[in-house]
Amino acid sequence: MATFCTALLRCTPLPSPATRFSILRFDSPGIRYFSTLRRARPVRSITAKRVDSDGQTRDEGNGSVLVRDDGVRDGRIVPMELHKEASEAYMSYAMSVLLGRALPDVRDGLKPVHRRILFAMHELGLSSRKPYKKCARVVGEVLGKFHPHGDNAVYDSLVRMAQDFSLRSPLIRGHGNFGSMDADPPAAMRYTECRLEALSEAMLLADLEQDTVDFVPNFDSSQKEPSVLPARVPNLLLNGSSGIAVGMATNIPPHNLGELVDALSVLIHNPEATLQELLEYMPGPDFPTGGIIMGNHGILEAYRTGRGRVIVRGKTDIEVLDARTKRTAIIIKEIPYQTNKASLVEKIAEHVENKNLEGISDIRDESDRSGMRVVIELKRGSDPSIVLNNLYRLTALQSGFSCNMVGILNGQPKQMGLKELLQAFLDFRCSVIERRAKFKLSQARERSHIIEGIVVGLDNLDAVIAVIRKASSNATASASLRKEFTLSDKQADAILDINLRRLTQLERNKFVSEGKSLREQISKLEQLLSSKHQMLQLIEQEALEIKNKFASPRRSTLEDTESGLLEEIDVIPNEEMLLALSEKGYVKRMRPDTFNLQNRGTIGKSVGKLRVNDMMSDFLVCHAHDHVLYFSDRGIVYSARAYKIPECTRAAAGTPLIHMLSLSTGERITSIIPVSQFAEDQYLLMLTVNGYIKKVSLSYFSSIRSTGIIAIQLVPGDELKWVRLCTNEDLVAMASQNGMVILGSCEIMRALSRNTRGQVAMRLKKGDKMASMDIIPAAMRKDLESKTEALSDSGKRASGPMLLFISESGIGKRVPLSSFRLSPLNRIGLIGFKFSSEDQLAAVFVVGSSVTEDGESDEQVVLVSQAGTVNRIKVRDISIQSRYARGVILMRLEHAGKIQSASLISAGEPGLEDSDTEEVDAVSL
Description:
Keywords: ATP-binding, DNA-binding, Isomerase, Nucleotide-binding, Topoisomerase. Residues 103-571 form the Topo IIA-type catalytic domain. This is DNA gyrase subunit A, chloroplastic/mitochondrial. 27% of the residues lie in helices and 25% in strands. By secondary structure, the protein is an alpha+beta fold. Helix 8 runs antiparallel to helix 9 (275-281) and helix 13 packs across helix 16. The longest helix has 42 residues, at 418-459. The protein is elongated and about 155 Å long.
């Protein structure tokens, strides 16, 4: 039956109006039935019947029940539809929870339990200037008079109002153990003591006895309790609130008292103030535990619509533990609101143990009464910023506060923005001021009326005494005074009650002065009641008094960042790195100082262990945040971030690209291009083995799906081998394996779409294929006009940009760019390198873009042999020769095969040593 009812509740729509229920008690002993008041139909009795095995029915004397029928007024069973009864009962329960338990009132920002606790303490006289009293005494008072629920619920609410890490401005002053940020429970209520804070008295309980709010009967109608407290400041925004009701919840952040009053003043002076104007005075929440609020987008959404997400980070410092060893530590000084410090420390230790957090050697919680201090010691060489970003990403050191600003307004739950909440409070405060003014006006008029009678009596003192002496009783004396001096009953009674000592002239003057003061007070109150402007001024004045007395500096700081959410890339430093790609599709990432600088003609250092029959294919320099475009021999391009490639040591074999990219069977990656930004004025220049070239806009490759996209159309037997970045102002140098060179302009090539073949780049002789391609930046073009072609006989080196030729046998040379002329595409080209037998061109680079003070190139070239041996040498050590010269030995390959790939890198890298023997191991990020 319970399962059936639950199913009905899930599938039946709830009616909008709440139905009032009552419990009807009938004559039958021990039986109670639930029913609605609006159903009252007559009933009739029926008798249960039994069917025998022969199919005949028999009446039974027992089991008779009553059902509703015309003409009968008594009954015990009410026929009704179950889904309607369940829906109405559930709706009644939901509204009861919403209004009476879970959601705060917009006017005073309190839930019923908090309001009852404060009122009970006020009734007990536990003011801020009185001694503390046991919390058990307060809880018993609340339970017995106002809140018939469990004592734990009341005590937990009382404790929270006394915790300075839960409320921005605590409403109760606690004495004893009231819990901690480590989620330690408070001591039992019989041990702790409490009293009201001065702020509670001034902000919530002032004017409570002046008919400012309605009082309603308590649960047993034996006492009266306020339906709301006459708050002078929007407490709902000051301390916030959180609660889960039926079908809705609320989560309102706390704010700074001074900023809140300033924003309220702005709205008082300008009811049409925009949200931006309010934000100038109250820029965001102010959490009691401090922290750093990241960005204002979530704040704007929450203040505008009532719902938003605020990102909060803990405050940290970096301290140097040992200056000699450069060991540092991260000090956590503040944590996000509602974060358990003990759980945070435990979670960090768990991540360190599981190796999700690297670089941490020790964690200590050194917090005490003076403040929070969590020390996270780092290992030697660890970057504190990287560890800190990982802490933000993996732990609650950065968390989000989801604002859901729902409160009770006019008896209904409603989601409101900042301005609507402030305006609702102002409307309530105006009604409080009006009721208080009317109450004071009534008292002043009543007192003024009595004073007028007393003054009349004192002015006619002899006649009054004579009338009193002649009277036979008090009633006769009162009647005679009313008749003789035209007084009211209260005036006559006041004259009769006056003491003889007050009949002096001095006392008369006091009554006259009091009457004058009362008339002035009455005049001011009447003006106040007739002027909405004066009411708003009084509201602002009273709020400013509270601000001047109780305001405190802001604890949470705001950082002007668009988003506090961390992506994976945010925790990766954008450092320079080396990428090595093998012919069989193994890739690895290494630090740039993995290979130290060596001299020309040395054997070199091994790039690492390669698979059987595998050779190095490409070797380049990029940054960790770059998009790496992987071009395959089939003309397909794939994309992945550079840091996605696992970092490894020089001796490691690398990671198969098939694990990172969706490569087809037999597909090989032939070129990789790192891209930091997809600029519209940049292009990709693609060259195939058979000499077809194509220029495509780089923006076409900004969004590449995981399965790759087409970069170039290929004919059977051709494959994409070289891809370079260029602009229209650049030049392109292309060379064939036989050493023929074409120097062309990128501008003359028309930009094509991705799904095209391109045009012929060079007329290749039979058996010849393309060997390499490089881009000549636009800044070098002006140097071509002023350089001569030949080298001087004196051996003086030519200056300016040059082409660096490297053959497969490890021989290389530099040739000035001025030795080559610009020519259109689809030509044979000029001779650039004269080879010996069985040798051919391996690579061509444009060098000279970066020079030293003496005009020489400060670039370096990294040579990789087929066996995986790497040699890194200075470009300036390579001879400058003519186009027909044979070059010099760059790398000895007697036992290492041929040159497989070559890469040009900058010399401005840290950690380089001018030594050919020292080896530098790779360092993990």
